[in-house]
Write a structure and sequence with these properties.
10 helices; 8-stranded mixed beta sheet; globular; 3-stranded antiparallel beta sheet; alpha/beta
């Protein structure tokens, strides 16, 4: 008989009105301000909304948001409650799903919300899901936060196939000491996966905690890329729509990555 996989048990801590999720280590796997459970508390998670500067509004309207890695469900709740998008969250650890519902105000599935206890890599590779995600958020680190749980070239290629023809993938990557090779490897694989005409890959530089956000666009329509002035124009509308997130700062920091020649 096959053994059931062993998963780290979720625990929580609270400080100054903020609740944190842990997986058996001091590393924070997600956070929620208890008084504002649907807001984005962590700065790097806020930055994962910078795709809104790059993706035209019409590209996300009627589309779904997919999250690979649930954590404390901050992104799932924000996409569902603030942006009112249908959401699919895929999480392998059943304890994390239970914790998100019990401790982090994640609604029960139904209506616009699906929460799947499943392997994210298998979900992305399933042809039945191809083209289903207007926005794809990838934030999967193990309990030691040493490297992404999924980072192969095949995985990123599957993620591209998961996107609609004008879709965005957003990935959280660590850039701190000891993570340089992992970071470079992942950026190279993302760039390689998004190498079709119209595709582009962008990044926000590391924040003070070392989180670098990569944004990859699948654009089969080959729409013109936004200029810096256009990014700044869009930022005010994005800030208004997201409850005051610092979109103008993102617009100034965004840089395009180019494939190696």
């Amino acid at each position: 008989m096959a053994r059931k996989p062993s998963f780290p048990e979720p625990t929580l801590s609270e400080e100054d009105g903020v609740r944190h999720l842990h997986l058996g280590t001091p590393w924070i796997q997600g956070s929620m301000r208890i008084a504002r459970p649907n807001d984005l508390e962590l700065e790097y998670v806020q930055r994962m909304m910078a795709w809104m500067l790059l993706l035209p509004d019409k590209a996300r309207r009627g589309g779904s948001a997919v999250q690979l890695g649930l954590g404390a469900a901050a992104i799932t709740k924000f996409m569902l409650k603030r942006l009112r998008m249908p959401c699919v969250a895929v999480e392998l650890n059943p304890g994390v799903i239970l914790a998100a519902h019990r401790w982090f105000a994640l609604p029960e599935p139904g209506g616009k919300l699906q929460v799947l206890c499943a392997d994210a890599g298998a979900y992305a590779a399933d042809p039945a899901h191809a083209g289903s995600a207007a926005v794809l958020h990838v934030d999967m680190y193990d309990e030691q936060a040493a490297a992404p749980a999924l980072e192969s070239a095949e995985f990123y290629a599957d993620c591209r196939q998961l996107l609609a023809e004008q879709g965005a993938m957003v990935v959280n990557l660590f850039s701190g000491p000891g993570h340089v090779r992992v970071l470079e490897r992942n950026l190279q694989r993302i760039v390689a996966a998004f190498d079709q005409p119209g595709d582009s890959v962008w990044q926000l530089p590391p924040n003070r905690d070392g989180n670098l956000i990569a944004i990859a666009l699948r654009d089969a329509t080959q729409a013109p890329l936004p200029t810096r002035a256009q990014l700044l124009e869009r930022a005010d509308a994005v800030a208004q729509r997201t409850g005051g997130l610092p979109a103008r700062r993102w617009a100034r920091l965004l840089r395009r990555l180019h494939p190696p020649r």
